[in-house]
Amino acid sequence: MGREIELKLDLSEEAAGRFARWDALPDREDVARLRAIYFDTPDGQLADKGLSLRIRQSGRRRIQTVKGEGSAGGGLFARQEWERPVRSLTPVLDSKTPIAQALGEAAAQIEPLFETDVERMRWVLKEGEAQVEVALDRGAVRAGEREAPLCEVELELISGPPAALFAIARRIDGAMPVRPGVLSKSERGYLLRESMKNAVKTEPIALDPSMPIGDAFVRIASACLRHYRRNEALLLHHYEERALHQARVAIRRLRSALTLFRPFLLESDVARFQQELRWLAGMLGEARDLDVLNGRLADAAARETLADAREQSHARVIEWINSARVRALLLDLAEWLALGAGCGGADTPIADFAGARLQRLHKRVVNHGRKMKTLSPEARHKVRKDAKKLRYGAEFFVGLYRDKKHERARRTYVGALKGLQDELGDLNDLATAPVLFARYDLAADTPLGLRSAKYLLKKAEKAHDRLAEAHPFWR
Length: 475
Fold this sequence. Notes:
- This protein is an alpha+beta fold.
- The chain is 51% helix and 20% strand.
- It is built from 14 helices and ten strands.
- The longest helix is centred in the last third of the chain and has 36 residues, at 404-439.
């Protein structure tokens, strides 16, 4: 059994062609065609247990590889792996791999699910004291009749510190645009078997109550970065308003994580990442505001008036996410998380920390939201932002409270919190509408498809009361 440490970088086919001719690469390279078949049970039991099984063929040589679950921080994959030569394309499931033990009798159900077929160009680079294998893979992933292109660079650490991988990645990005890749080849195959998505929502975050705070933060922040990158990849393919929304949710979640864990992070790190993430969220904000407004408008003529502004804002989104500044931010975040995020004094178990932070946010939302009808729009907006932070925190830590004792309370509480967010969101849309109407030359009396402020305030007040009465599930 070995341990693989590699950094994946996504790039376009055009950038891949430039990379293959990059003058910083050695003159000698290996070129091979690699076909890999991935196996699992029909219901994906191996994937559920964090394992992947493949047989890769190059020429007459066949290698079976089992990869285990490991850390995947924004493109850096550190995983256990078991490799062995095999004679055929039938997996060998003996005691030398964890497959039989993990699946038991279900191991007999293992069958081919999908395959990758790539041309791999390979070089070895030296970066300071480190030695790194550089591979450019171009080809396809196939599952049944479905096929998706595959184009990525893998930087695998042979020896030396992991920071060398990011140094090389930055040099590559200086010559052609690349981004941290957050999907393994096996994940690409499993996704190809599912129905195609226009946006990717948050994934569950596995936390253990005894996990140190520093490790928990890295896992949470890495999940946020993965959430953003998956939706950014959809936007780079074509603009989709739900993908933009989820990309902005990912940014807000990451900013909330930085705030929640601030006592254990270097202030300089928090400041620089909050500044850049705030900038990115702002750059994407206009398009999101126009998408929401367009969805609210019942009048076709009003939607037509917005059409040009929306189209221009969508084009700017693609321009910004393609910028060197965004790519640099993603690489900086990926490296920071891969190297531990500088979490100081963060050995305390996460369970001791999570409840206290959630309770603090809960009290703030409950206390500041009292007498909703008398609050100014600005004060209500602040309650709305705090409610979002509370919801993100609850989602981050929910894995710590999945036992039967907490389950009913968790469902009730999260439902009440979501209800408050929805009502405050409608109020915010109503309050900001006049500014947007004036900016985009819409009549002040344009129907917005919302009830009156008095009605919405009454609903928001009731939603706040339900949250205040809900039992905090972490207690």
